[in-house]
Design a protein that fits this description.
This is Sodium:alanine symporter family protein. The protein has 478 residues and is an all-alpha fold. The chain is built from 21 helices and two strands.
Amino acid sequence: MTDVINLMNDLLWGSILVYLLVGVGIYFTVRLGFIQFRHFGHMFSVLKNSRKADSAGISSFQALCTSLAARVGTGNMAGVAVALTAGGPGAIFWMWLIAMLGMATSFAESTLAQLYKTKDDDGNYRGGPAYYMEKGLGMRWMGVLFSIFLIIAFGLVFNAVQANAIANAMNTAFGFDPMIVGVAIVLISAFVIFGGVRKIARTAELIVPIMALAYLALAIVVMVMNLEKVPEVIAYIFKSAFGLQEAAAGGLGYAIAQAMIQGIKRGLFSNEAGMGSAPNAAASATPYPPHPASQGYVQMLGVFTDTIVICSATVAIILMSGEYVPHGEVTGIELTQRALSSQVGEWGGIFVAVAIFFFAFTSIIANYSYAETNLIFLEHNHKAGLGLFRIIVLGMVMFGSVATLPMVWALADVSMGLMAIVNLIAIILLSGIVIKLAKDYNRQLKAGKVPTFDANDYPELKSQLEEGIWYSKETDNK
């Protein structure tokens, strides 16, 4: 079984996804007119009115925090350290590149999720790739396939990984028994998960900004303490990205390949652009401006914040510490803890443990919300089904807390890769709609208007949209 999973990983991440992610990112970057660069400032402008919500949807800010809760976790602290150790500092360049390209991909998938969202039995907005595969492409089978991959990855595997990171960090920093830590995580997670999507959003809105700002502040302190090393570290990253460090040793091709693979793999695990996860949060929002593309801008900011900002903070902490050893035995969260402790003292390791607890905990509850949305798509949202699924999710959290996870990590990579492939195919097939919506939004913006989506302008789409969300028959008949 392990050999099969490793073979699939090598196939997916050694070639298929590298080309697909970069290719789709370039495609949307060009088709959308380099939107992530030209409209960089607008990503922040959209947040001005992002606290608006209604009875059906959470606010855009809550949707951003929920998606960041899922994004900002072990990938930002442990994953970056793994990428550095396995792929060298050059992996960070490729992580940055895939994030910049991924911002355009994220715009596309989140815009589509907003457009094709529906209401569940409780009147809450639901949506995501499975929904636009069914409604936009008329391919429910594709949505079912995606939902299954997502439920396995986010509902089960990733939550075990996040719980494992918390348990290891708490054991390293405080000597806590992983079993006790696991029980605590399960109890706290259950309290939030059983409260539904709104409690998850409120929890993410409270925790994520505070912890992200605290982590960034500490990284800035480390950089200020090591200002003279900043140019050296940046040069080190770029030289390693193109194998200049390794060329003399004759390992040029291998070094570049490893840097690319690790950077792209860990970059996707961290920012999730193109994977099809964040659109599940984007769809649950009541957007302002009231246009599907506004959520595209919000979620682009999520990718930027996750990788370009928070992952880079971890990079700075590790590479400026003197603790980093290429292909060394110390990796993952332990390397991040050691690096920070060497800079600010023993409490640095404690801070990382606390940060990973909150980041990974919010990832667990956000991951669950994604899985729940896809469980609803599969029409298993009756109370008994949801209750059983929640118990299984919490069981995986407990399992992850006490298990050794090389196999689980490998399974996470496979699930993530399969999700991404299905989603990337779907958004390419629906790319024409994305381009139309982006042009409509920006045309209104240039005219000094608040961009507002009118389904009547898109008769070819209207039949695919759920009545009562973007249009209503009563309004149309007046």
